[in-house]
Amino acid sequence: MKLCFYQRLSLATISVFLLITSIFLWWSDKMQATISHQAEQQLHLNLAKHLVEDNPLLKEGVFDYQALSNLFHTLMVMGPNFEFYYLDHLGNILTDNAKPGKVKLTRIDLAPIKQLMNFPKSLPVYGSDPKNPEKQKIFSVAPVFKNQALQGYLYVILGGEQYDTIVSKLSHDRNFAQYTLLGVSTLILFLVLMVVLFAWLTKPMKKLTLAMESVRAADYDLTRSGYSPMPWNRDSIDEVQKLGCAFNDMVAHIQGQFEVLQELDNRRRTLLTDLSHDLRTPLANLQGYIETLALNQQSLSDEDKARFIQISLNNAQNLKQLIDQIFELAYIESGQVKVNKETFPVAELIHDVVAKFTLKAQDKAIQLSVSPDSKNAMVSADIGKLERVLTNLIENAIRHTPGGGHVTLSIQPQADGIAISVADSGVGIPETELNAIFDARYQASNSQKDRSIHAGLGLAICKKLMELNSATLQVSSVLGKGTCFSFVLPVPD
C-alpha cells in the first residue's frame, strides 16, 4: 500500500514520538530510583553504627554467632525492609538472618564499604547483594572493633528481598495504571494536535498538487485549466513556498510560450492567406495571357504577341521573386541558415552595391552617394547576407524617393562598431506604422507602387539577416521628409 506524504509524515512523527517517550520514561524511572535510593541511604546512613554501639554483643567484640543471628532475626521482624550480615575484616560473611539456602555469596566486596565509610556524602553507594549476585543495593555499614583492633563489619542491606518483592508488585500495578493513563491520554492529545498541525503544514502542498493536476489535466493550456497564480512568498525559507514560486514561474513561462506560439500560428495563417492572394495575381495574369496567345495566335499581330509574351515573362519573374522570398524567410526562421563571418573593408562592398543602382537612380534623377568615403573601416560579418540587406534597402529607398531627391549611405566609426545607414529624402513613413515596418507582409500606407509585385517580405528578411550578423536593423522616419535605416556592425577583435 502506497502512503501519501501526509500519511508518511504522520507515521514517522508517531514513531519518533513513541521512541522519545520511551527513552524519557526510562530515564525518569532511573532518576526517580536514584533519588529514592539516595534519600533512603542518607536516612539510614548511621543505622549500622547505632546497632554496633547499642548492642553488647557487637560493642564488646565477643561474638556469639547464634545469639547474633537471633538478634538479626528480631531486628528484621521489627524492620522487614532490612537484611543484616556480619562480616569479618576480609568481607567474608560470618552470620546473617536469612533462611538456609537464600544467601548466594560468601564474601562481600569491601570497595563500596570503604567508599561509603570514607566519603559518606557521595550518595548513593551500591554494594553487593548476598542473595542476588547480579544486583547491587544500597546499604549501611559500621566497623566492629575489639581492643582497638578491627574485627569485622556490620553490613545492613536497605530494602531487602521481601521489601523488594512487595514494592515491585505495588510499583508495577501503580506504574502500569499511571503509564497506561498517561500514554493513552498523551497519544490521543498528540494525534489530535498532529492531525491539525499536519493538515495546516501540508495544506500549501495540497493546493500546489491540485494546481499541478489541473494544469496537467488541461494539457497545459492555462486558458482551459482555470489556474491562477497563488501568492507564494518568494523570499520565504520554506521549501514549499519556493516550490510554489518555481511552479508559478514555470506556468508563466509555459503560458508565454503558448501565447507566442499562438501569435506565430496566427501570423503564419495570415501570411499564408495573403501570400496565396499574391501568388494568385501573377499566376492568373500569366495564365490569362498564355491562354490568349494559344486561342488567338492566328489573329494576333506580331507586335501583340511580343507584348503578351513580355507581360507573361514579367509575371513569371514576379512569381519567382515572390516564391524565392517566401522560401528565404522560412529558411531563415527555421534556424538553418549558416553564417560565414569574415573580416573585410565595408566601404568596398557598399561601393559595389551602389554601382548596381547607379543607372536606375539616374533614370529617376536621384542623387546616390556614399558619405564619408571611409576605406579603412573593417567589419566582421557575412558578406553575402550584408550585400542582400544593402541591396534591399537601397532598392526600397530609390523606389520611395521622387525625382530630384537623394539617397545617401553613411559609414561612421563608433565605440561599439561601424554604424552604417541608408537615408533617403522620400515620402517617409507615418510614426504610427514604424513599429510594424519589419513585420512580414506589412506594407506602409504610403508605399510607392510600380510594375513589380512587392510581397512585404523584404524588410522582414533584412531584419533576420542582420540579427544573424549580430546587429539590429533600426528605422527612423519623418512623414514627407524621408526615412533612414541603420545598423551597427561589430569590428574584428
TrEMBL record:
It is found in: Membrane. Pfam families: HATPase_c, HisKA. It catalyses: ATP + protein L-histidine = ADP + protein N-phospho-L-histidine. It is an enzyme of class 2 (transferase). The keyword Transit peptide does not apply. Residues 199-259 form the HAMP domain. Its EC number is 2.7.13.3. Residues 274-493 form the Histidine kinase domain. The chain crosses the membrane at residues 6-27, 179-201. Its main location: membrane. Gene3D superfamilies: 1.10.287.130, 6.10.340.10, Histidine kinase-like ATPase, C-terminal domain (3.30.565.10). One of its GO terms (cellular component) is plasma membrane. One of its GO terms (molecular function) is phosphorelay sensor kinase activity. Keywords: Kinase, Membrane, Phosphoprotein, Transferase, Transmembrane, Transmembrane helix, Two-component regulatory system. PROSITE patterns: HAMP (PS50885), HIS_KIN (PS50109). It comes from the Bacteria. This is histidine kinase. It comes from Planctobacterium marinum.
